[in-house]
Design a protein that fits this description.
Blueprint: E1 26-27, E2 30-31, H1 61-78, E3 83-86, H2 89-96, E4 111-115, E5 121-124, H3 126-135, E6 144-146, H4 161-175, E7 183-185, H5 190-198, E8 203-205, H6 207-214, H7 219-242, H8 249-263, E9 267-275, E10 296-305, E11 308-309, E12 312-318, H9 323-342, H10 349-352, E13 375-378, E14 385-389, E15 406-414, E16 421-431, E17 434-437, E18 448-449
Parallel strand pairs: 3-7, 5-6, 7-8, 12-18
Antiparallel strand pairs: 1-2, 3-4, 4-5, 9-10, 10-11, 10-12, 13-14, 13-15, 15-16, 16-17
Helix pairs in contact: 1-6, 4-5, 7-8
Length: 452
Amino acid sequence: MARRTKKAEPRLVKPSDIDPKRRPREGPDGLYDPADPGHRWERPLQAPGRMQVDFEERVDFRRLHEYRLARTRNALAKSKLGALLVFDQYNIRYISSTVIGEWARDKLTRWCLLTGNGEPWVWDFGSAARHHKLYAPWLPKNHCLAGLTGLRGAVSPKVGLFEAAAKEVRDILVQEGVADMPLGIDVVEPPFLFALQKLGVKVQDGQQVMLDAREIKSHDEITLLNMAAAMGDGVYQDIYEALKPGVRESEIVALATRRFYEMGSDCVEAVNAIAGERCSPHPHNFTDRLIRPGDQAYFDLIQTYMGYKTCYYRTFTVGSATPAQHDAYRKAREWMDNAIDSLKPGVSTDRVVQAFPKAQEIGFETEMAAFGLNFCHGLGLGLHERPLISRVNSFKDSYELKAGMVFAVETFCPAKDGISAARIEEEVVLTPDGAKIITLFPAQELPIANKY
């Protein structure tokens, strides 16, 4: 008779088992530091094919995970927090390398906990948690848990799910020795916050800690951002060829969305398509308006590849262009080039923002009214990360630019005809020598689609 073997139970990770600094492995260049971004500035920025191959190194996703987790540990260690509890989908992915689709982005139904002494804990839909146990071996199996709280109010707080989840979190804080330290939270449903506070957990802002962690992109992150930008290059070629009288803004959106998914996009978050009299002021959306001869038209491509975003504006005219349209475009390009020329490691953001026009120069009464038209914003898993450089905030809270930052530079200039406007956006990687543009569809001069 065959002897029955005892089923192995998942190993419980204890504080004594974890040393955040003990992650070395032997390599030809000595000890491996997971928090080292591994930049290769002496080489061209890489944009390889999407397939994994055995004959050249492309993106190393396990190295990417180790880097992001190490960056989070380091940021947490520099803070006065004992742990981070995150509900923001970008933070969850950054810490745990788990994701269940963009539909979860606004549900607040997944969360992740990381203490200074432990490995990531992930609460998810029950079937997703079981999937993580099978396919996410970088997480301890007993750290992938079924979870549900309020689904933004769909489940009443009277059910008690918030209290149960808060107790689970508090018990882990006790188990891993950080219950007496503040807990950092990014975004949360109020009943979850109240339940934690009722248990005596001191809650503070954790989003700033996470943005500190996500600020410097690794070689793998820069590669993914460059691959995403290359997809945008291709979509703009398709838009340039399709842009002609009789085509609707919504048809261009459909074309762009289809092409992105054909090329491997995770999610097309938004495609703005704006033409003709809709160009000024900027409405930040699209309609079913028909494109007409002589229209100015600009577009923004916001999509993700392996979680990493694009934010990529280009402006065209259809068939022909007027002197007013050319003049607006030249001004927008001049502001763009001046801003990019100022981007260097060690430069303060209050210096960079001086390259952008004041609100009154583009017809707005205040800087708040003009926000989002001439500024810079960080790109990564999120659409707006550090640095965020604008006249609204950068004179009051400036900080130093660093090599390894990746961000978008945006300019907008209304035309003197009162209808048209130019909108340009370049994505840049900040290298030790300055900004390197990775959005390559031509934009030095105003492109005229299907010129007459």
